[in-house]
Amino acid sequence: IAGITQAPTSQILAAGRRMTLRCTQDMRHNAMYWYRQDLGLGLRLIHYSNTAGTTGKGEVPDGYSVSRANTDDFPLTLASAVPSQTSVYFCASSGERESGANVLTFGAGSRLTVL
Amino acid sequence: GQNIDQPTEMTATEGAIVQINCTYQTSGFNGLFWYQQHAGEAPTFLSYNVLDGLEEKGRFSSFLSRSKGYSYLLLKELQMKDSASYLCAVRDSNYQLIWGAGTKLIIKP
């Protein structure tokens, strides 16, 4: 593993089903994030975690939950999927880099279609 | 409300120069980022500006004017591989990132 790994890469899901998107990083970054990306819109933050054991709500948290049991893993769960949750989901983590920037490193994304 | 504006799409010619603008209205300012995203891939970090002026990194430069709420990304000596979307993001007073919808850059031979 080098960076952030997301799984699955893509998934088609029936409405009402439960789904967990997995995210694992090996950079020992404290902060992790889940975004969704929809055509014509900027990335929108769903949930975040500043450190293991803590989580927070982002801009669009409804219908999603997260957990952060350890530094490396940050799964995103859709308890009962709805068609409006059809999107590309990106997991990201952040660590300090030059000039104090908190640069995000993204996973490759998970494309989810809810029918 | 908070808002990031950037053109939806731009077209440029291989070997030329292109400037992608970004204007923002946010609750406070703690830095502006540019990311590159190739189709079907993850965004990758390009540049960070927190003070006014120009930051140069090889063929790419980024400019910031905090008083005008304005930034641009300048790409020189365009290559076909520069065809991608370019995302502008501002970190607000709560250290949350606000993202623009991205500018799709099409490079023609």
In short:
Helix content of chain A is 0%, strand content 49%. By secondary structure, chain A is mostly beta strands.
Task: List the SSEs and their pairings.
The complex is a heterodimer of chains A (115) and B (109).
Chain A: E1 4-7, E2 10-13, E3 19-25, E4 31-37, E5 44-49, E6 56-57, E7 64-66, E8 76-78, E9 87-96, E10 102-106, E11 110-114
Parallel strand pairs in A: 2-11
Antiparallel strand pairs in A: 1-3, 3-8, 4-5, 4-9, 5-6, 7-8, 9-10, 9-11
Chain B: E1 3-5, E2 9-13, E3 18-25, E4 32-37, E5 44-49, E6 53-57, E7 60-65, E8 70-75, E9 84-91, E10 97-99, E11 103-108
Parallel strand pairs in B: 2-11
Antiparallel strand pairs in B: 1-3, 3-8, 4-5, 4-9, 6-7, 7-8, 9-10, 9-11
Give keywords.
heterodimer, A: 115 residues, mainly beta, seven-stranded mixed sheet, four-stranded antiparallel sheet, B: 109 residues, six-stranded mixed sheet, five-stranded antiparallel sheet, 11 strands
Order of helices and strands of chain B: EEEEEEEEEEE
The N- and C-terminal alpha carbons of chain B lie at a distance of 40 Å
Mean pLDDT of chain A: 93
Distance between the termini of chain A: 32 Å
Q: Which overall shape of chain B is indicated by the principal axes computed on the Cα atoms?
A: globular
Find the count of extended strands of chain A (DSSP E, 2+ residues). 11
Strand content of chain A: over 45%
**The biggest beta sheet of chain A, please?**
7 strands, mixed
Sketch the major β-sheet of chain B: 6 strands, mixed
Measured by DSSP, the beta-strand proportion of chain B falls in over 45%
- Low-confidence segments of chain A, given as residue ranges, are none
Number of DSSP helical runs of chain B: 0
3D architecture notes:
The complex is a heterodimer of chains A (115) and B (109). By secondary structure, chain A is mainly beta. Helices cover 0% and strands 49% of the residues of chain A. In chain A, strands 2, 4, 5, 6, 9, 10 and 11 form a seven-stranded mixed β-sheet that branches. Chain A has a four-stranded antiparallel β-sheet with strand order 1-3-8-7, with no helix packed on it. In chain A, a hairpin with a 6-residue loop joins β4 (31-37) and β5 (44-49). Chain A starts with a strand and ends with a strand. The mean pLDDT of chain A is 93. Chain B has 109 residues and is an all-beta fold. In chain B, a hairpin with a 2-residue loop joins β6 and β7. Chain B has strands at 3-5, 9-13, 18-25, 32-37, 44-49, 53-57, 60-65, 70-75, 84-91, 97-99, 103-108. Chain B is globular and about 40 Å long. Helix content of chain B is 0%, strand content 57%. The mean pLDDT of chain B is 96. The A-B interface holds A 40-45, 58, 90, 97-109 and B 4, 8, 31, 33, 35, 41-45, 48, 50, 87, 89, 91, 95-102.
